[in-house]
UniProtKB/TrEMBL annotation, chain A:
Name the record gives this protein: Sugar ABC transporter ATP-binding protein
PROSITE patterns reported for this sequence: ABC_TRANSPORTER_1, ABC_TRANSPORTER_2
PANTHER family linked to this entry: CARBOHYDRATE TRANSPORT ATP-BINDING PROTEIN MG119-RELATED, D-ALLOSE IMPORT ATP-BINDING PROTEIN ALSA-RELATED
UniProt-listed InterPro entries: AAA+_ATPase (IPR003593), ABC_carbohydrate_import_ATPase (IPR050107), ABC_transporter-like_ATP-bd (IPR003439), ABC_transporter-like_CS (IPR017871), P-loop_NTPase (IPR027417)
TrEMBL record, chains C, D:
Superkingdom classification of source: Bacteria
Protein topology in the membrane: Multi-pass membrane protein
Subcellular compartments: Cell membrane
UniProt key word Membrane: yes
TM stretches of this protein: 29-50, 62-85, 97-120, 127-146, 175-196, 225-246, 284-303
Pfam families: BPD_transp_2 (PF02653)
Listed name of the protein: Carbohydrate ABC transporter permease
KW Transmembrane helix (keyword) present: yes
Taxonomic classification: Bacteria, Bacillati, Actinomycetota, Actinomycetes, Pseudonocardiales
Amino acid sequence: MTALVSMEGVTKSFGGAPALRGVDFDLRTGEVHALMGENGAGKSTLMKVLAGVHSPDAGTIRIDGKPVTISSPIEATALGIAIIHQELNTVPDMTVAENLALGAEPRTRWGALDRRRVLRDAEEKLARVRADIDPRLPMRRLSVGRQQMVEIARALAEDARVLVLDEPTAALSDREARRLFALIDEMRAAGMGLVYISHRMEEVWELADRVTVFRDGRSVGTSEKAEITPERVVTQMIGRNVEDLYVHDDRTPGEVVLRVRGLTDGAGIGPVDLDLRAGEVVGMVGLIGAGRTEIARMIYGADRARGGTVELEGRVLGERSPDTSIRDGIGLLPESRKEQALFLQMSIRDNLVTSALGRLSRLGVLRRGAIGDAARRQMDALGIRTPPTREAGHLSGGNQQKVVLGRWLTVGPRVLILDEPTRGVDIGAKHEIYRIINEQVSRGVAVLVVSSDLPEALGISDRVLVVRGGRIVAELDRSEATEEAVMLHATGVATAAEKNGGTTA
Amino acid sequence: SEGDPVTAERGGPGAKVETIGLMVQDLSNPFFQSMANGVQAAAEKIGATVNVQDGRQDLGAQNEQIDAFIQQQIDVLLINAVDSDGIGPAVDRAKEAGIRVVAVDVAARGAEAQVTLDNTAAGNLACTYLADQIGGAGDILLINGTPISSVQDRVTGCKQALQNYPQISIVAEQNGDNGRAEALTIATDMLTAHPDVKGIFGINDPTALGATLAAQQAGIGGLVIVGVDASPEAVAELQKPDSMFEATAAQDPNTQGAIALEMAQKLFAGEQLEEQSVLVPTEMITRENLAQYKGWQ
Amino acid sequence: MTRTAPAGTPATEPAERTRPSFGQVWDRYGILVVLLAMVALMAVIAPNFLSLSNGFNVARAVSINAVLAAGMTLVILTGGIDLSVGSVIGVSGVSSVLLWNAGAPAVVAVLGGIAVGAAAGLLNGFLVAYLALPAFIVTLGALTYLRGTAYALTDGQPLIAEGDLGFRLLGNGNIAAIPSPVVVMVITYVAVWFILERTTFGRHIYAVGGNVEAARLAGIKVRRVLLQVYLLAGLTAGLAGVMFAARVESGQPRAGEGYELDAIAAVVLGGTSLFGGRGRIHGTFVGALIIGVLSNGLVLMNVPFFTQLIIKGAVIIVAVGLDSLKNWRS
Amino acid sequence: MTRTAPAGTPATEPAERTRPSFGQVWDRYGILVVLLAMVALMAVIAPNFLSLSNGFNVARAVSINAVLAAGMTLVILTGGIDLSVGSVIGVSGVSSVLLWNAGAPAVVAVLGGIAVGAAAGLLNGFLVAYLALPAFIVTLGALTYLRGTAYALTDGQPLIAEGDLGFRLLGNGNIAAIPSPVVVMVITYVAVWFILERTTFGRHIYAVGGNVEAARLAGIKVRRVLLQVYLLAGLTAGLAGVMFAARVESGQPRAGEGYELDAIAAVVLGGTSLFGGRGRIHGTFVGALIIGVLSNGLVLMNVPFFTQLIIKGAVIIVAVGLDSLKNWRS
Ligand SMILES: Nc1ncnc2c1ncn2[C@@H]1O[C@H](COP(=O)(O)OP(=O)(O)OP(=O)(O)O)[C@@H](O)[C@H]1O
Ligand SMILES: Nc1ncnc2c1ncn2[C@@H]1O[C@H](COP(=O)(O)OP(=O)(O)OP(=O)(O)O)[C@@H](O)[C@H]1O
Ligand SMILES: [Mg+2]
Ligand SMILES: [Mg+2]
């Protein structure tokens, strides 16, 4: 049988920098073909070529064996190719319905915009992915996760034969992910060809019929379902195997460093109580929209709390804001690095020292020597091997995330709050980030990790807090924290059960 | 005293002017265009070249232009300053560079000679005429302009004249930006506030003509509207028998320019001037004497 | 040891309430309230302000800036800006009178003037959309060379219309007892409203302004949208220019100097974000009225012109200040 | 078929080549090339263009706009804009002469004038930083009310300096054979360069302009940075105003009309992005020179004024066009 899609010798470079160096790739009908590889390996670029976003420098693309040239997103759609891009591509100021209709707005007989149909179509599309979202809402009002669901709805709507999902679960948590996997199975059964890009091994094992591994702009091998083993894939990806991905030394936490009591924003989040001990990692898990990010931001002072107290080493902190928190020794690694953390057009060095300039200057004048040293030291510690003067925007996702983390290591806080620290980061980088976290903890830093990647959260945490409806509904020890246990609490089943049946000992 | 001034001493007995710099406030006003024409014509007669620069009503620009002229080592500079005093330092620089400077239309501090229109007299004449036409009593509107020397003098002159007419009062005074459009807009509003005025004085013809339009459009009749300049536009309007625009104080920028060049030539040749300061008389142009008025060239 | 809390209320989506809050109402009508307050004030302190005829004066005086602002709104919604519209008024006005004096029929003169504006806009659009030059600089350049062109066309002289100008009705006189420029203004706003609210092109304008990358990936021809938007801005400016010429019954090369800032002020007062993607055309209309009412009232009160400047500046700031109270909820 | 590499090699970043490409060189020096080309051209066609004294003329003529543009660069780097600087020139110049005429010593008069500018900037900054009003509108309002204030201070009349103005040196005369305004300009640029390249404040300016949310979360006091930036823009404009007054030895209420656009043009020509976060102060200097060389050369060539406008407009566009060739690599 001829492949649904086959790409041969595709090359693409950006301003002289090769991103694809002659890639062969093929997709069959009725299969899920997983693409894996380090950040910057070229996965998204290849798919953007297929989706008509980038035109290749060389190479041929065949659909059903017939050579085609795809020079615009519209042409791709016409050929039945749909894609969910890695980055959110929504228009925040337009409604969900308008976003769903974007680029293909229905017209009335007289060529005017058919607003009734825009709404009707939107409701259908959302129904298909079983997302209960009001299509009249402005997109900006939705959380990252829900915006992602809208994107999925949009892609599925164009009844395509080929669907590319580029890290669709990065912003989703387990429940939404499950829902998506069910849809994927349906589509596979319906004979569609799906390309699935992810850095989450577990998902790949579960979904993929074949796995192609990318490295350095080349395909370094495709394995059939039968022959897929984690070791093999990881080795292909980063040239070595990662024995145990989740680094976690045995340790005994020290004194309580951070004590939060009754923290609330007066609108759906909180009241929240939690303690952080020196030298421990506490995971915060929950469904999308559970409010984990809000809790984290309130502790740090990024958002104003309407009630409750935050104590640091016994001292009650007053009105908190990022700058006071930093002075007090609390740090936050925000949820989305591009929007909230990184200065894309600044050098790696400047990004690393942004929050420590007070220490690295005298009377407001930069101590450039000291800055250079500090930056170089961090880059070595983080394993970022590229000139410090390089613009952060040019780095791959993994290295960007390391830079943001490095900014906090330069400051050296007592309490470090990490919101989705490995979102969209490749396994090699993930491993290094876990290593860094572990190292900080061993120095007595208290770490709070918000993660939608459940295995990760369980793998690196000493304790796990389950968040639902803006509250902490359960606290589980490392020993008792299993995915099942967490999901029970996260979805509310557990508490429901307890009502008619005593409490767990 | 700046840079290394180009103090090549030029001119002297019998010397002929070869390069002329002419600077005017605002070439987009026909008045100054006519002045430029006057200088151009006179220059051709003596076979000299003219570099005309537009001040765009910006003193800063005029400063730069003078420096450029110094650079070009022109022989004489005819200057129509945006501001009489503000131009002073620049004039001094020009003289240090050996350029003979004559002020045109508006006085310029430090100029060696000047041909000026008596703007005060012009304003005075215009408003006297207006006052008489409305029978020495009633309310009138005054449409002022951007505060530059010539405009201010006209307003001063007008108010002087009105002191002889105690029953006349200026009920509103607004800035028409020296132009027809803005004058039209604000005159419309002024007439709304004061529908029963008897006359309007505009500081120049474009302004007065804008006011005339405003009155027509507002359906107000029987006004006496006067301006200053006697520009072609104004002449055309005066020729309409039914227009409320009745008179304008004639200024002759064309001749002014010519006279200025004449004086500059004399200075350049080291001759004595009979008088350092020539004051060009102005006369009221009305429908009656319109025939005799030769207008601008 | 497992601490468990009572079943938590499901994740509340803070802003999912669809019932309009006070804030949302203010978002919508805040600037309108400002306008009404101003009218009320003027009615009390400015002589003859509150009369039908003066209402028409204001409307007539506003019409040109309002038409400019309508086109400007489209550009700003895409996140761009057009500083050249003031100079377009000069060029197109002069052109239309030139055509008239050359013996062209009124209609041709009018369309000619508008076409000149459209052409200028087309060039801006090409440079911004296809050469990706910054709109601010492109249109700043255009502001300069178009003004020069206006002067060049008339040798710096105002151009007296021969006979009485065939299309003077566009600037003066009435249509069904309503000042004709006001009629033109209203038609323009209805047209722009329809484009923005009822056509796919309108949606695309918001999309490009809201998130250009998303728009491109959704298959929207971003460049064409930008080109068309600047074209329309030039076209409306051309129309404004012809209206101006008709109003002063002559071709004034200086016409429209500085009008671009008033137009932009109207747009922003109307609540349109200079970053694009957000705004409504009726807001612009209200913004233009605020500026017009203010100028008119101050003249009626015979406030000295420099005091007028001080008040105008202050009011502009206060108006956006009040309007932006909405941001204070977040 | 599994290639294995030595442990821990990072994902190779294609663009990691450190040897500067042609493109990068052009990024850096593109606009400089444009300037040199222009100077070369002028040297050939404009009489007496290439001479030390004319060099000083250009520098002197440029100095005021250059000083304005220096402060403007700081504002634009934060993603803001300041349209009020032209009017600040009027107010501060008038104020300094008022002080002088009131018998204040020259130093006091100068500092007073500068202080007035700084105060105006402080108000802009407060409204933008703490009330979160759009900079464009706030400074547009300031442009208007400050001009009014300048007129009000002098009753609309230009203000003649009594005796000879104690600080005329700031506008005329030389310091060590170099025109004094040029010296002032150079000092200003060195100061701004130091702020941007050598101080934490400078880093913070780039950070706020680059990503305001990230800056806030990184502990930068965003509002204070904004406040200070507008303050500095007002301060440099105040300085420019005093220089203007010194140059014309009088207080001109109309001084600086429209200068804001020239200043912004200089900044953008210099390669600073109007979206903030990206740009260099020396670029602004080059940009100001381009504008200055052009004006000077056109006068020397005796080009009619409206042709000058056409050429200027075209050159501004062409200059950014050439400069933006860099974008074509991606
Ligand atoms: N638009 C662009 N301009 C310049 N370089 C780009 C562009 N898009 C991608 N690149 C570069 O091409 C290389 C491949 O990028 P790509 O996004 O395909 O990697 P990826 O495999 O998707 O990585 P990740 O897993 O982080 O998404 C990277 O080095 C990236 O920096
Ligand atoms: N930009 C936003 N505007 C309005 N509400 C938001 C926004 N982002 C999140 N929310 C709301 O805040 C709550 C928490 O959202 P969020 O998704 O950030 O929580 P979370 O637990 O951090 O989930 P995740 O971090 O996986 O996105 C949800 O009710 C969500 O709807
Ligand atoms: Mg990718
Ligand atoms: Mg979150």
